[in-house]
Design a protein that fits this description.
Distance between the termini: 42 Å
Structural class: mainly alpha
Radius of gyration: 18 Å
Number of strands: 2
Mean pLDDT: 84
Strand order of the largest sheet: 1-2
Order of helices and strands: HHHHHHEE
Low-confidence stretches: 1-5
Shape: globular
Largest sheet: 2 strands, antiparallel
Number of domains: 1
Number of helices: 6
């Protein structure tokens, strides 16, 4: 059974189409990954997890705006597809595509893969990107996480 949608009154703007369930789930995963990245003390893990959060955000846009194609096709980068499907996100796609090799190095555990500053910057940029993605999909951003008490200290 499909969910009922409110119909706008005369003179009001139409409501945006509902976001597919898969896109909403991917956004949730992206936010959880971003929270994990923000809480990590290892710059390599922070960088890799923030990049993964952005990738899940890109996947949410792809899930909302595309349909699977039949047949076998050569795999393409989510960042390439994002630039094609959502031209308004093309600069973001190029930015994150440029960081893919650095993410791979960080995931491989290379000690000089990323600096703490690069990791911090990517966590911030991934958060901004997810806000832009939510805006593109007509979603409200989730409320900020409440501070947790761990051993009597706020985190």
């Amino acid at each position: 059974m499909a969910a009922a949608r409110a119909v706008p009154a005369a003179g009001q703007l139409p409501l945006p189409p509902p976001v597919p369930v898969a896109a909403g789930q991917l956004l949730g995963q992206a936010h959880r990954a971003l929270g994990e990245a923000a809480g990590s003390t290892d710059p390599r893990q922070r960088y890799a997890t923030a990049h993964l959060a952005a990738l899940r955000g890109a996947a949410a846009v792809l899930a909302a705006r595309t349909r699977p194609e039949g047949g076998r096709r050569r795999p393409r980068s989510a960042w390439v597809l994002l630039g094609q499907v959502a031209p308004e996100l093309e600069e973001w796609a190029s930015f994150f595509a440029a960081g893919a090799a650095k993410r791979a190095a960080a995931e491989a555990g290379l000690s000089r893969a990323v600096t703490p500053r690069e990791a911090d910057d990517l966590v911030r940029d991934a958060g901004t990107f997810l806000t832009v993605v939510e805006s593109c999909l007509g979603q409200e951003p989730p409320p900020p996480p409440r501070p947790r008490l761990v051993a009597g200290q706020r985190r």
